[in-house]
Amino acid sequence: MIDMIYIAQNDTPQNTTKEINIQQSGLVHSKVAGRFEIVKELPKKTDSFDNMFNYADTFGKIKLAYINNADKISNIANKENKQAFALGAEFGFKSAEYNGFKTNILAYTSQNLTFINPNKNSINEDFFIDDSSSFTYVGEASIAYSNDRVDMKFGRIKIETPYANSDDIRLAPNTFEGAWTNINFTDELQSQVIYLKRWAGFDSQDLDSGASQHKFKHLIDEDKFGMIGASLTYEYAKNSELSFWYNYIDGMSAIAYAEVIGIYFIDGEGFHIDYGFQVSNIQELDDSGVEGNVLGALAILHYNGAFLGTSYNIAYSDEGKSVSNGFGGGPYYTSLAEATISAISEGASSKSKSNNDAEVYRIALGYELENIGLNGLVIEGAYGELSNDLGSIIEKDFVITYEMNEKWNLEATYINYKSSCDNNSFDRTLVKVDYSF
Length: 437
What we know:
- By secondary structure, the protein is mainly beta.
- It has helices spanning 49-54, 341-348; strands at residues 4-5, 23-24, 45-46, 57-73, 79-94, 97-98, 101-112, 135-146, 150-157, 160-161, 164-165, 175-184, 189-200, 217-218, 227-237, 240-249, 253-267, 271-284, 292-303, 306-316, 358-368, 377-388, 391-403, 408-419, 424-436.
């Protein structure tokens, strides 16, 4: 889930506000304007190197999580429930700023609560590694520099870009080894440049090869240099932007991505429409099989806390080819809690047919309950249907997010998933309670 406040792209003191600032939360709003924006928290400053660390802050988050996955393979009689509780945490250290420089270190952990969890044959391993073992690792460790025009960081970093992002869907978000730079040419025009070599996190794991989520591994393989990318974003109106991204992923694909996305206000902030249009061109490298084109559109109508959204994506790929999410949740507007257009595309790429085209429809509705005195509580539901020549996937999501205050946050998701492509279906419940300090 993404919680966004629409503020200026450049967050220097003279440019931190706009005419209308709104806050939107939840699954449906995870694809609207500002999702690739990096909002800085201005650090304490110091006049000496030693005081960088004397004035350092510790911070973190404690997470209690529960998951229950009821697999239904072929028929209801052959059903297996796997569940788990875990105590997760993020513990970090950040220095004060000295001459524009600062440091950041953040460790992630997930601990198996063995006294209440089932045996290893019935435990859900999404929170764990290596036969349901706990893990702890340093997910972020970086040096950063910033001034009025430039922000940069290198080391182990968390970033949000179309084809490389944190996608925090379990207890270990995706982080990367590499470098990131943001340049503000003007208040309306900015650019990002990235280089990524390795990554870790829930999306990075490959159980078949033994690549656990807590180990940093190469994006493709050790013989490839990784991923380089650059973007140009122009804010053509308040809360509305045009962006272009180009990523070269050695050994996989060259990806060009363009997007127009924004908010049109009809009557103040109470009545508005979020809109978006996207196109992605993926060119195969080294016979990787990752190639195709994706088109998409998005519209979300808001009125006094209620919202109704619809989105559509279509992917075009030749036989044996497929489109990709990249490294994380991907940029596509129709992505659900589980199913994505890249997943159905990748699943069909090995099947023999004339093409591997796919399309997805998603409709969602929800309500932000602050209008009746429950600030921070959002209830939403989504229905999505993905289809190609081999079959279809239908997913229904019900999501509750509740930001009780600055420290406490609740996120609960229920998923009903049915696929005729591989005759697989499941129900999943995932609940996380976070305490930040």
